[in-house]
Amino acid sequence: MPLYFGIRHLSPAGAKHVLETLKKYKPALVLIEGPSDLTGLMDDICHKKAVPPIAMMAYSETVPIESILYPFAEYSPEYQAILWAKKQNIPCRFIDLPSSVFLAISKRKRIESNTADIYQKIAEQSGEKDQEIYWERNFEHRTDAVSYQQCANIFGKELRELSVDDTYETAENILREAYMKKQIDNAMQEGFSEDKIIVITGAYHVEGIKNCEPLTEKEIKALPKIPAQHTLMPYSYYRLSSRSGYGAGNKAPAYYELLWKAMKKNNLIEASYQYLSSISSFQRKTGNMSSSAEVIEAVRLAITLANMKKSNIPTLQDLRDAAITCLGHGSFSEIAKAVASTEIGTKIGALPEGVSRTSIQSDFYYKLKDLKLERYKGLEAQILELDLRENTRVKSQKSAFLDLERSFFLHRICVLGIHFAQKQKSYQEKATWAEKWLLQWTPEAEIEIVEAALQGETVEVAVAFSFKEKLEKATSIIETAEILENASLCGMPQVVQNATIVLQGLFVEESSVIDIANTIHKLSAVIRYGNIRCVDANALLPILEQLFYRACLLLEKSCICDNHAVEGIITAMDFLNLASINHDTLAIKQWVDALLNVSNRDDLNTKASGFAAAILLERGEMTQQMLLEEMKRRLSYGIPADLGAGWFEGLALKNKYALISRFSLWEQLSEYIDTLNEEEFKKALVFLRRAFSYFTASERNNIAENLGEIWQFNTQQVSAILNDTLTEIEQDTLQQLDEFDFGDI
Question: pLDDT tens, 657-679?
Answer without folding.
Answer: 667 666 777 777 777 777 777 77
